[in-house]
Amino acid sequence: MRRGLRVAGSPNDTAMNWKKLWRQIHYWLSLVVFLPAGVMFIAGGFLMLKKEIEWIQPGTERGVVEAQLPQASFEQMLASARQHPQAGVTDWSDIDRIDLRVDRGIAKLRAKSGWEVQIDTKTAEVLKVAYRRSDVIESIHDGSFFSDEVKLYLFLPTGILLVVMWGTGIYLFLLPRLAKRKKKKPRASASV
């Protein structure tokens, strides 16, 4: 048999079909996931920098740390947050959550408007008022920003397809290296 010619049904023909199949899968999946994966990657990059960039997530201030339990009442904290109209806090229904940082002596009141009010847990003094973009960026990253359907039926399959692409990419990367190893082994044993 001459080099470069393949006989149909030969072992090399089967190996080449698998190689071609994996390349085709890898190729077409890259087109399918192009846009949603791009959105996921860019938003994920911003999330990785949220502690370093104040614009993404406000840095955490430090209050008076004397006791483990907050000395200011929740009502005092709410009254302090009301003094900053940009946060849009008038009553408890405007608060999405409270993040209590005992070791820093602060409470972060996260408003439904996206604003964060950091309050000293001893004095109820407002230490910082800033817009918190990390929550919006996280919802873009997981697809829930667009809708629950987009999250479940576009972004979740994109994640699964990226895992398949990762596997086919590893296979395509290792395949030529394994073939070179196989070719070297018979030569080494023939020379002995």
Write the layout of secondary structure elements.
Elements: H1 11-32, H2 34-48, H3 74-82, E1 95-101, E2 106-111, E3 115-120, E4 126-131, H4 134-142, H5 148-191
Antiparallel strand pairs: 1-2, 2-3, 3-4
Helix content class: 40-55%
Strands of the widest sheet, in order across it, are 1-2-3-4
Roughly how many Å apart are the termini?
26 Å
Percent range for β-strand residues: 5-15%
The chain-level mean pLDDT equals 86
N-to-C series of helices and strands: HHHEEEEHH
Multimeric state of these chains? single chain
Structural category is alpha+beta
What count of structural domains? 2
User: Given the structure, what is the number of helices?
Assistant: 5
| Biggest sheet descriptor | 4 strands, antiparallel
